[in-house]
Design a protein that fits this description.
Elements (H helix, E strand, L loop, with lengths): L9 H12 L18 H66 L3 H51 L7
Helix pairs in contact: 2-3
């Protein structure tokens, strides 16, 4: 009687090998993660860094609130200066109109001189109001630039790791 010979292909041989080693094809063959905890000094340093970062962020927020408050005050000041300028400009316009009417009606030289004096005073007020408004606008512009720069620096510091060394 003849003996029957069995031949095994590559896949079958692999399956038999895996079965023989106790691992099925469905199982993952990954290594288990290390159970060694990080050194205590590293955790302590990271905790300190996190606390410092939070402290820095709180300080940045306070500075940002201060910047916003300053900008708000500057805006209010600008609005007040605009109103003052508008009022003084209207007063100047009214005095000029009064001078024209006095000249047309043949008013005395004293009356015309008084009107011209009022106009000069009003022009000085308007000039001073415009100068003050320009100054306040410039101050607001600088405050905005400073606030933007502070925010930019704060983002760069936080993005750079907040000074942490690893």
């Amino acid at each position: 009687m003849g003996r029957q010979m069995w031949t095994a292909g590559g896949a079958a041989l692999l399956g038999l090998t895996l079965l023989g080693s106790g691992i099925s094809q469905a199982q993952q063959t990954t290594t288990t993660p290390s159970t060694t905890p990080p050194a205590q000094g590293d955790i302590r340093k990271d905790t300190q860094d996190i606390r410092q970062d939070r402290k820095d962020i709180r300080q940045d927020r306070k500075e940002l609130q201060g910047d916003r408050r300053e900008i708000r005050e500057d805006r209010k000041e600008i609005m007040n200066d605009r109103r003052k300028l508008e009022g003084d400009a209207k007063e100047l316009q009214k005095d000029r109109q009064e001078l024209r009417q006095d000249i047309r009606s043949g008013a005395s030289k004293e009356e015309i001189a008084k009107d011209r004096q009022e106009i000069r005073q009003d022009e000085r007020k308007v000039h001073e109001d415009r100068r003050e408004l320009r100054h306040d606008r410039q101050e607001l512009r600088h405050d905005r630039q400073d606030a933007r720069q502070d925010r930019r620096e704060g983002r760069e510091n936080r993005a750079g790791g907040g000074g942490r060394s690893r």
